[in-house]
Amino acid sequence: MLPELTAEGELRPGVNIADWQEFGARFRSSSPRRVWLSVRLRILLELAATGGKLRRIFVWGNFVTVKPAPGEIDLLLIMDEYFETERIAASAQATTR
Length: 97
Description:
Helices cover 27% and strands 13% of the residues. The chain is α+β, with helices and mostly antiparallel strands. A two-stranded antiparallel ribbon has the order 1-2. It is globular.
């Protein structure tokens, strides 16, 4: 369960655990920008999870505050040690052509 935000509108320092529903209820729908970013985050997480190797997701920065229009989502995906980029969906792979 996510703790209440500080008086400054931020999460308290530390690691907070939440499922997608709780995370979304807190941070997804307060503005069109947040909805837009949340949709892209959900797509990214679904693509990252396709191979069954996604283990943890860390999100920090302006998105996990009360800021109405954060510029981006700062995140880190922790993958299983056996994760191989060649095995993820082609739509999730960057190309350099």
